[in-house]
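Key idea: predict the complex, not the pieces.
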Amino acid sequence: MRETEVLSAPLLVEYPFTRTVGPVQSAFFTALREGVVLGVRATDGSVVCPPVEYDSFTSESLSELVELGDAGVVTTWAWVTEPRDDQPLDHPFAWALIRIDGADTGMLHAVDAGDESAMATGMRVRIRWADDREGSITDIACFEPEAT
Amino acid sequence: MTEPIEVSAMPDGLWSQPAVDTAAIDVLGGVEPVRSIRTPASLTYRYTPGLSQSRFLNAMAEGKILGERCPQCGKVYVPSRGACPVDGVPTTEPVEVADRGTVVSYCIVNVEFTGRGFDIPYASALVLPDGGDIPLFGLIQETSHEDVHVGMRVEAKWKPPEEWEKSLENIEWWRPSGEPDADPETYRELV
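Result:
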């Protein structure tokens, strides 16, 4: 049989999901669009951000929203040397858990620190808001080190 | 006082998430609440079909449907994956099958989905090409979906030759060939 050239072609598998957010995340995303971060008060009085519908320990419904600050503390992080398409930044950055002022839990987001050496657990970071906000986690463009 | 956020299109009683107290948050007053978010997921691959399917696709670009025959059971697989799944031996003999065949299974599609421009309802079908032993997936057009049935004889509607690529999409759809229904014995193993 004649030698065959093996073919190769790009293949994109794409799912254009839209999902409803429920009452708690609706409040969270709506407030983000207005430039405010919300948490929710858990049964033990602590504040969870991003807010959740049910208490992680007691499973009780949670309904008390709490307005938080727009800065916080990095509790853990990982440096991304080669950002991928659709990640928040197109140059090296850190994924970090950020405990927003007034909250007791960490929110995952990007920190635009410029260089890995600028990252440290415990550092303070502040929200850089997106220019156009539409009610999405990307309304927070990223966090940046707080000026000292 | 803000209105409670209505986020569900579900009928009463099916929505079980807790209501939240939005009145305490000033920025939620008088603004349109976010009800949904877009969360697209995409996976970027490079697909390599292998030798047998490369031969099949190269033949498609010439307007031919090429299968391969198993040297043991004699069955012709279209497109071949390179080996007979029954006997576990390579399928080495290329066999051109006809661009007409028999509907051995079908379903009526009543739900529109992304990427298909066809008016619903329409029929998609498995078509056993003459000379082949496994069916190809395709659409049935140029007839009412209500007339589609198992045993129906169909022929391929090709794109114009200048548009042929190394793709099964060179066959736009299958349409009735006008022949009488096939003898059920010819596709008995497949229904």
